[in-house]
Amino acid sequence: MRRIRVAAAQMGPIQKAETREQVVARMIALMDDAAGKGADFIVYPELALTTFFPRWYHADRAEADHWFEAQMPGPQTQPLFDRAREHGMAMSFGYAELTPDGHHFNTSILVDKSGAIIGKYRKIHLPGHDEYDEERAFQHLEKRYFEPGDLGFPVWRMLGGIFGMCICNDRRWPETYRVMGLQGVEMVVLGFNTPSVNSQKGEEGIEQRMFHHRLSLQAGAYQNATWVVAVAKAGSEDGHHLMGGTMIVDPDGFIVAQLGHEDDGVLVHDCDLDATRFGKETIFDFARHRRIAHYGLITGRVGAEPPPEE
Ligand code: CDT
């Protein structure tokens, strides 16, 4: 048994006017709660330090730079790292990253229990659009403010296990999990900001969106025999509602814990990393069963190309 006690630290809404100091104080309160419950590892949402700013259009992209972190840890986030080290707790959280040479990424990091950043992931599947779209009920400008990630889907050894990260929309793509699965991942952690209504299809509401969320997580977990920990930023940010749905999925694809509210709160669960073994050694023993000679289109073709009509 290799038991990791994970705390999925859901965050309620972060309003535009909220400062980094206020948000970090909320994150520390969640961490203290998780520490009281004996957690080894705390996972926060995507873009945990700010409101989901890609819903706001700036004609001049540089005006959005104040949402980005040029340093990690920086003066405002250092207290979070300090508290994690005091608790001896590993952590992962998402933020908008501005690199020294001016690149912008939607990033998450993995921090070990000594407070050292041991892993970085930059979101690869960026949803939305890059110009103002008046057809949509609200904007989703991730393609305007971020570049696609350039680090692939690595995994890292930590706490006696193998961990990987992805971010929000990545969870809907089977390739995300499989690339990590091929490196033996035992726990995938991810944060998300998912509007509860489809901006291009008003009748697609929270029920359907929650179904697709669960479907994606459960399939990814089962097909790669890995734990999946998914953490929401939820509730109404300046009138824009994000769904909840913080949950933990086991390597058989079952939801073993979930939060039923949209506020700040921790969901704690003991995850046995050895529970990944059965699936990895039987039905999803990749070395025995995969047939890569037939998978070329997966990496050779981006969009669907149906055969010519007769
Ligand atoms: N943050 C993020 O990736 N959200 C997307 C919304 C998709 S609609 C453009 C998601 O997949 O949940």
Could you describe the 3D structure shown?
By secondary structure, the chain is an alpha/beta fold. 23% of the residues lie in helices and 25% in strands. Strand 2, helix 2 and strand 3 (90-98) form a beta-alpha-beta unit. 42% of the residues are buried. The structure holds 4-methylsulfanyl-2-ureido-butyric acid (CDT). GO terms for molecular function: hydrolase activity, acting on carbon-nitrogen (but not peptide) bonds, in linear amides. Residues 4-275 form the CN hydrolase domain. Keywords: Hydrolase.
Structural descriptors:
310 residues, alpha/beta, Nitrilase/N-carbamoyl-D-aminoacid amidohydrolase, 6-stranded mixed β-sheet, 8 helices, 14 strands, binds 4-methylsulfanyl-2-ureido-butyric acid
For the termini, the CA-CA separation is 58 Å
Ligand catalogue: 4-methylsulfanyl-2-ureido-butyric acid
Which range does the strand content fall in? 25-35%
User: How many helical elements?
Assistant: 8
Biggest β-sheet description: 6 strands, mixed
According to CATH, the fold-level topology is Nitrilase/N-carbamoyl-D-aminoacid amidohydrolase
* Widest β-sheet, arrangement of strands: 5-4-3-2-1-14
Overall residue-averaged pLDDT value: 98
Looking at the overall shape, the CATH architecture is: 4-Layer Sandwich
CATH superfamily: Carbon-nitrogen hydrolase
Radius of gyration: 19 Å
Helix/strand class: alpha/beta
Gross morphology is globular
H and E order: EHEHEEEHEEHEHEEEEEEHHH
Q: Classify the helix fraction into a percent range.
A: 10-25%
Task: Supply the number of structural domains.
Answer: 1
Number of strand elements:
14
Low-confidence segments? none
CATH class: Alpha Beta
